[in-house]
Amino acid sequence: MSQTTGTPVTPAARERVPAFRALVVDDEQLFARTVARELARKGVPADVAHTAGEALERAGGTEYQVILLDHKLPDDDGIRIIPKLRARQPACPVIVMTAYQTIPSAVQAMRQGAEDYIVKEATTARLIDRVLEVRRCAAARAAAPEPGEPRREGLLGRSPGILNVIRMIEQVASSPDTTVLVVGESGVGKEVAVQHLHRLSTPPGAPLVTVDCVALPAALVESLLFGHEKGAFTGAERTVDGHLEAAAGGTVFLDEIGDMDPSLQGKLLRVLENRTFQRVGSSKPHPVRARIVAATNRDLLQQVRAGAFRFDLYERLTVFPVHIPPLRERGEDVLLLADYFLAYFGRQLGKAVEPLTAEVKQVLLEYDYPGNVRELRNAIERAVIIAEGGRIEVGHLPERMTRRPVLSGGGAGGRHLPVDFVPGVDTLGSLEKRMIQEALERARGVKTEAARLLGISRFQLLRRLEKYGLRAGDEREG
Question: Among candidates 87, 88, 69, 89, which has minimal Cα distance to 79?
Fold first, then answer.
């Protein structure tokens, strides 16, 4: 492996470099096979796809470090599928190949997120050199220190809810003028979702400007968002661009929009309706050249009913809402995220950590996570720090996670769930199963009520139903 000037490639960095693999997408089968063969001779294994559908299928199942994409494909335009490829391979550069280069096509490819736009020639030498350059850059990045934060942690998972979030982001990425509202509880990963949308829908290097709607002082919000002209007010000694201008070509992220000061809501509404704004002290309209994305953990409709939020602004913001489900509704995603954080913090702290034990996994699966992904992340970070020998024990998790629920129904208004115990026959598991069946019977199949009778959460009840193989048909519907 090569090394950058003055930056030696450490063993840890060398371990971080994934096997470099390419995907060649071209309907000319002979050309695609020739490129793949030439890459293999240079030490770069390559897969081949001849249609857009086949390319997306491969990108969804194999990790690639570079994609060579033909402009014209028999079932779709190559440039149009770039956002879909990037959704499946966020860190993978896409190089568009074409027989004829035109400026509009090159610009369109770059706007969709292509890394480069190359004209196919009689020989494949230029393409091969470009791929090898990408590989050298990947090696240099691996030699550099890792970024401080994992980038897509909140969107990792296979649950239907999170896959739907990713699909919706992929869909709206191709519509840069559409306002997007990301909603979800605190800690679910709203900011991560916004960052992912930004990467998919803007050129590399485009600005992402975050505006904290809670921290904005009411007296300065107009100047901060829209900018001001020199002399607009006392102390305005020069013309200053606002956040909307600073984000030109990129994204403005209005975080915690539900807490926005009422005096600003009307001004924001006019921006969304007219796609223009005026600097303080000026009557000249300036076009909005950025996508506007908002996020909140509040129920905006309830805010509207309480008179704290404008209904017309609510309507403008909810053109394309994206709801991120809480972690307690994402099932096995808990373990996938836990493994991700375990590896991440082990690497950050230079500790060799062992895979999570079955006992630890069970505790993680049964917890409710009121703090969502952020809480799980903090718990794993803490466990990695205090664990000796790299083995995470249940005792290394926060006490609130390890506190076992009381399955006596004591919290259900004094009603009890009597279960007979047969010594030598019954086990703790069999008693728990019968108690769950009794609770479901008393609750007439309503899981929320059954969970309340048992003194556990609905999510914990669902986990136990899965554990004991109890299906909906086992419950009495009433």
Answer: 69
In angstroms, the CA 86 to CA 88 distance is 5
3-state secondary structure 272-332: HHHCEEECECCCCEEECCCEEEEEECCCHHHHHHCCCCCHHHHHHHCCEEEECCCHHHCCC
H helices of 62-186, in order, are 82-88, 103-111, 125-143, 160-172
Among residues 447, 470, 454, 452, the alpha carbon closest in space to that of 417 is found at: 454
CA nearest neighbour of 161 among 372, 363, 356, 342: 372
| 50 and 26 Cβ atoms separated by less than 8 Å | yes
242: left (phi over 0), alpha (psi -120 to 50) or beta: beta
Q: Work out the angle at residue 218's Cα, subtended by the Cα atoms of residues 223 and 286, and round it to the nearest 5 degrees.
A: 30
384-426 per-position pLDDT tens digit: 999 988 889 999 999 888 875 444 444 333 345 555 655 656 6
CA distances from 190 to 3, 77, 86, 322, 404 (A): 37, 31, 19, 9, 30
| DSSP code for 7 | B
Pair of tokens at residue 354: 């062992």
Report the alpha-carbon distance of residue 451 to residue 459 in Å, rounded: 9
Can you read off the two tokens belonging to residue 456? Answer: 């556990």
DSSP 8-state symbol, 125: H
- Which residue type occupies 311? F
> What pLDDT, on the 0 to 100 scale, is given for residue 4?
30
The residues, any chain, with a CB within 8 Å of residue 430's CB and separated by 6 or more, are none
Report the residue count for the chain: 478
Ranges of the chain with pLDDT below 70: 1-18, 100-113, 115, 122-123, 137-154, 215-221, 234-236, 404-428, 471-478
**276 and 287 in contact (C-beta within 8 Å)?**
yes
Nearest-angstrom CA–CA distance, 408 and 400: 19
How, if at all, do strands 291-296 and 240-241 pair?
unpaired
Residue 21, token pair as written in the block: 């693999």
Backbone φ/ψ region at 150: left (φ over 0), alpha (ψ -120 to 50), beta: beta
Q: Which three-class secondary structure state does DSSP give residue 183?
A: strand
CA angle 376–378–383, rounded 5-degree value: 95
Cα–Cα distances (Å) from 299 to 73, 370, 372, in that order, read: 44, 17, 17
Question: 8-42 burial string, b = 16+ CB within 10 Å, else e?
Answer: ebeeebeeebeebbbbbbbbeeebbebbbebbeee
Rounded Cα–Cα distance for residues 133 and 127 (Å): 10
Angle at 283 (CA atoms; ends 280, 287), nearest 5 degrees: 85
